[in-house]
Amino acid sequence: MKAVGIISEFNPFHSGHAYLIEQAKKITGADFAVIIMNGDFVQRGEPAIFNKYTRTEQALKGGADLVFELPLRFGISSAGDFALGGILALSGLGFVSDVCFGSECGDIRLLSEIALLLSEEGKEFRQSLDEALRHGLSYPAARVHALSQVSSIDEAILSQPNNILGIEYCLSILKTGSSLNPITILRKGQAYHEADADVKAEHPSGAALRAKICDSSTPHMTLEDFSDMIGYALLRCEDLTRYKDISPDLARRMAKYIDLYQSAGDFINRCQTRAYTAGRIRRGILQCLLSVENTPPVIPYLRLLGMKKEAGALLKKSGSFSPSCIFLTKLSDDIHSLGLFARHLLEQDLFASHLYRQTYCRKYNTKLPNEYQRSPIVIR
Fold first, then answer.
1. For residue 90, which of 5, 132, 167, 265 is within the disulfide window of CB 3.0 to 4.6 Å?
2. Where are the alpha helices (H) located in the chain, listed in sequence order?
């Protein structure tokens, strides 16, 4: 039995994701698609528009066979750290041979070539990168500029979001020595950032779907639902640099505007500069709220969120995880098998999900089971 891996947020799950899963299985000849998916908060620095169980069920109905939760420490981090977490997770499973992702260029040789250039970080590249950073560019923009200076690669390719993430997957494979084989599929439909709420494209973008959901009566979550909590967390924090992606310079800029805090969106707009993107600031304030610090990049456990019934044979045949990665299905039993550090990471995941659940229940005056009352979703 062969399995292909996909790393995604499914925020929300849509036809483009179903197409990716279908093509990933077809190209690799895989029997199963294994998903590493964000929990209740996503890499762009926002709460997921739907909770992780809703998105898991949608993914299973859309072609996924196993869905595991990416720990929060990687889930609300930079593109490079997000990719690293996904690659570590798939590699730790031991039964996944390929990782498949969409890209605007659809050329795995090109993305792998760029990843190799980044992994080598030659002197000329480093000098160009440092110069761009001194001129106030954000790190991603500075890296694009440096690569364009040391190679003939089109700068437009380096600026497209799915290409960037694909390069990070390839780079993470190189850094970790993973045996995963990277495969990319040409992205179809709307562009990643296109937010046309009319969604008439063959495969509408996540941004367009989120815009449509936010304009509807469908229950959903946004960053502003956590606005007061974020303001409180920022106000009571004595050292913002404790948190993973908040540098001393960014901490000083954020501190400058804390007294003027009115909402999360207003605060992000005040702090944003050419060097500090809105996405980085969103991630920083969520890391402050959820106490995500710069811990070692390891995956000591993975939590199963859902599966197709027939995929159970894959888990049994493969002997579950490597010894360094514990397989979590029932929290009340499995939490006792974790070491101190792994339990600390899991408690961060649980706190984030409990906060998401509590905020949702208050917003919609409803009740939902807590994390200890949840079991993996199993469908036929």
1. 5
2. 15-28, 52-61, 72-75, 79-93, 108-120, 123-134, 139-150, 155-158, 161-176, 206-214, 227-236, 248-257, 264-271, 278-290, 312-317, 331-334, 340-364
